[in-house]
Design a protein that fits this description.
This protein is α+β, with helices and mostly antiparallel strands and about 500 residues long. It has helices at about 15-30, 55-60, 65-75, 110-120, 130-135, 165-175, 220-225, 290-300, 345-360, 365-395, 400-410, 415-425, 440-445, 465-485, 490-495; strands at about 10-15, 35-40, 75-80, 80-85, 95, 140, 160, 180-185, 185-190, 195-200, 205-210, 210-215, 230-235, 245-250, 260-265, 265-275, 280-285, 310-315, 320, 325, 330, 335, 485. The longest helix has 27 residues, at about 365-395. The model has no long low-confidence stretch (mean pLDDT about 95).
Length: about 500
């Protein structure tokens, strides 16, 4: 792109969830810029990101998507949190739920009052004070709006959906907004004199010119790595799982409003309920267990009849050293990979798109724009990395080699500081820009038996009788709110039953 030339042509290399989310957002929100997406029907997509977090609603709303139409088109169900089974000690279970954790007393966060109540024998398990946990226990869901005098905000929720159907749904929207799709295999790349990408060359000889290229080619990272050699920062020192098996199975009742994450011998198993099937997978460490044994564990723990053969995936956890290099931005798996334990895969696509829109050049790309994009990406991925490491490190599965190893490993200093601060004082002070705030950290830490030695001194000023009354009122408010919700499966049946669209030609 020549100096001061106006950026007018954006090319998205690759389809799937990352490609079509990017193309749809650019087509809807980027203004007078031509968007071309190149993909080949011969190349499959990974499609493991079927569970989301509440921010996906912001993305859908920004595009003007109708929720009922989206739910029906993608086979979606509702998600109120993630159930973790066996991540502390074998037999333990807790829920990392969306939403508030109880409610504070003045400036005192709820968990400090709860910790003192626990010490006095007045408090029940933490989940008794979380609306989403109680709704999960009763298999309930509603578009819940609390009364005006309620201490709780509206109940946050996310979705489980079929990632392939979501990409297909967004393709229809994007093409209606002017995005042009080109079918073909990328066979080569042409560079300009200044080293930028000038055009993609397809196997049939077609040239696709552009000013800015978005690499959504998945693990292959065709542009950002194979062509521009961005480099990769490997995090397997801490996140030792490097394989996954994925298989769908038939649906079973009840249709629950949460994701399950079940600790296994050398990794964990996911269960994601959709309207038309259940998504299952086994993430594991190939140094600790064979693929055959991992497959046997997965297939022995399905709730319904398998609908396909397990599909094997290999990955290395980490990130590109530069996710924006020259005139290429990597979005999705091409930018890096953090395993799907906390359903961040699709969210990382979403936040990358938001950064792209925030920093979208109008003319020549500046190094300052690249640096800002890369710095924000680096901070986000490192903070999520630390939160995922916590789940592994804070385990009590004594006598199991894989779990003994991750419990004993030295963790990043940024994570160790959070653990030490919480263990000593009950305090959690994540950066305001981190995805997971104190509500998430406290649920995982306490859920995996990291109990503080003390709490905020303001909690000691609360008389035991008043504290007991306060805890009881919070619990009753959650129970009363959940009681006004209907059954999750019946809500979906009435609101937006699945409607699988015909394949797009």
């Amino acid at each position: 792109m020549t100096a001061k030339a106006r950026l007018s042509r954006i090319v998205v290399a690759g389809g799937g969830t990352a490609g079509w989310m990017t193309a749809a957002a650019l087509g809807k929100l980027a203004g007078q810029v031509s968007i071309t997406l190149v993909e080949s029907d011969e190349i499959g997509t990974v499609g493991v990101g079927e569970a989301t977090i509440p921010a996906i609603r912001d993305f859908n709303q920004a595009l003007g998507l109708d929720e009922a139409e989206f739910v029906a088109a993608t086979g979606a169900t509702y998600k109120l949190g993630i159930g973790f089974e066996g991540w502390g000690a074998p037999g333990d279970a807790y829920v990392h739920a969306f939403g508030t954790v109880g409610r504070g007393i003045g400036i005192l966060p709820f968990h400090h009052a709860w910790l003192r109540g626990r010490d006095l024998g007045l408090a029940k398990p933490l989940g008794h004070y979380l609306l989403n946990v109680i709704a999960i226990a009763g298999n309930r869901f509603a578009h819940f709006q609390p009364p005006a005098d309620s201490v709780f905000p509206a109940m946050p929720y996310a979705f489980h959906f079929d990632a392939g159907l979501y990409a297909r749904y967004l393709r229809g929207k994007a093409e209606a907004w002017g995005v042009v799709r080109k079918e073909g295999m990328i066979d080569g790349v042409e560079r300009s004199d200044d080293g930028d990408i000038a055009a993609l060359r397809l196997s049939d000889g077609t040239r696709i010119e552009g000013d800015l290229f978005i690499d959504c080619s998945g693990f292959r990272a065709l542009l950002i790595e194979q062509e521009l050699e961005s480099g990769f920062e490997d995090w397997t020192e801490w996140l030792r799982c490097d394989r996954a098996l994925a298989v769908p199975c038939a649906s079973v009742d009840p249709l629950v409003p949460y994701t399950r994450s079940i600790a296994r011998k050398a990794g964990w198993q996911w269960r994601i309920p959709l309207q038309h099937r259940i998504g299952n997978g086994h993430v594991f460490c190939s140094d600790a267990i064979s693929e055959d044994e991992a497959t046997a564990i997965l297939m022995a723990n399905l709730d319904g009849e398998p609908l396909a053969q397990p599909r094997a995936l290999r990955f290395t956890t980490g990130k590109r050293r530069e996710c924006w290099k020259r005139n290429v931005i990597a979005i999705g798996l091409s930018s890096g990979f953090i395993e799907p334990l906390e359903s961040t895969s699709i969210h990382l696509i979403q936040t990358a798109i938001t950064r792209l829109l925030d920093l979208l050049p109008s003319q020549s790309i500046s190094q300052a724009e690249r640096d800002e994009y890369n710095a924000r990406t680096d901070f986000e991925m490192r903070s999520i990395r630390d939160f995922i490491i916590l789940h592994y490190h804070a385990n009590q599965r004594v006598g199991e080699p894989f779990w003994d190893g991750v419990r004993a490993m030295r963790v990043p200093d940024t994570l160790q500081h959070k653990i030490d601060l919480f263990r000593q004082s009950g305090r959690l002070m994540p950066d305001v820009n981190e995805l997971f705030d104190a509500r998430g950290w406290v649920q995982v830490l306490l859920g995996q038996n990291v109990v503080p030695e003390s709490w905020h001194p303001a909690a000691d000023a609360i008389a035991p009788e008043r504290l007991a009354d306060f805890l009881g009122k919070v619990e009753r408010a959650c129970v009363e709110a959940a009681s006004r919700m209907g059954e999750h499966q019946e809500f979906i049946r009435q609101f937006a039953p699945v409607r699988i669209p015909e394949p797009t030609s």
